[in-house]
Amino acid sequence: ILVLLILAGAFIPTQAFWNAPAVSTCNSAFMGRQFGELLVQPAAGTHSATVIMLHGLGDTGSGWKPVASQLQLGSHIKWMFPSAPTRPITMNGGGSMPGWFDLGTPTQDDVGIQESIDYISELIDSEVKAGISADRVLVAGFSQGGHLALKTVLKYHLKLAGCIAMSTWLEALSFEVPAAADLPFLICHGDQDVMVPVKSAYHTDKLLKSRGLNSTLNIYPGVAHSSNSQELRDVSVFIGALLPAVSEPSLTRDDVDKMSVKALKQFLIKKGVDVTTLLEKTELIEKAKSLCSE
């Protein structure tokens, strides 16, 4: 599972981003707080991994959903794009906007942060309950979302696949992180970022390593509080390495006899078969048996 966020709507997609598949949506209420719309892009193939991406301040999950197609990862990955609740933001003069927690206050909004951590953790829980191993869930975030991604992964009670934190920050940790031992972290930051200065990335990387965690730091020359194509390629490689497709056991002819019409069609489609011409279940079974082992 993976988390991304944005402080100033600085994500700049290429044209290819807008060719993303359709996603399902639902409104999300959690512990009395009305979170925004949750967008879900199901795995096109057999679901065996999940990435949760967290948007930034003033943005919503829809601002990042095209990244799923841009990264060109496997059809086994399900994508989740949650949206923060709309709340008064101090640094916005008290005006309301989507935000995972308040910013600009004299002291950190620990209540708001924990509330959002609990919400994202509940999304992870739902994936685990559905049969996805925790170590097949990656969380990624950009800016404020990156901060939330880091803290969610560090505090979660099970070891996840990894964490990507883009253009963000992290203060000294006041809690232990036993479940995150050896978990890979990717810290990405532009060296021209004036909203979250690049020194925050060096500090975050140093802090994680001081806890014995596996952190990789990538600095992008000339990039402000945004992302570029090289950063996205690095993100794609990182996710692909941590969430490879899982080899499926070979089907036997006896297995085929026990499959439903839906399962037969899914199997054949994955094999590149045009099922529109196979109208009867017997035809589906015959074709499937011709493609499987004895």
From TrEMBL:
UniProt-recorded Gene Ontology molecular function terms: carboxylic ester hydrolase activity; palmitoyl-(protein) hydrolase activity
Positions of the Phospholipase/carboxylesterase/thioesterase domain: 40-241
Family: Belongs to the AB hydrolase superfamily. AB hydrolase 2 family.
PANTHER family: LYSOPHOSPHOLIPASE-LIKE PROTEIN 1 (PTHR10655:SF17), LYSOPHOSPHOLIPASE-RELATED (PTHR10655)
Cleaved signal peptide residues: 1-16
Keyword set includes Hydrolase: yes
GO cellular component, one term: cytoplasm
Alphabetical keyword list: Hydrolase, Signal
Coiled-coil regions, chain positions: none
This protein's record includes keyword ATP-binding: no
Name of the protein in question: Phospholipase/carboxylesterase/thioesterase domain-containing protein
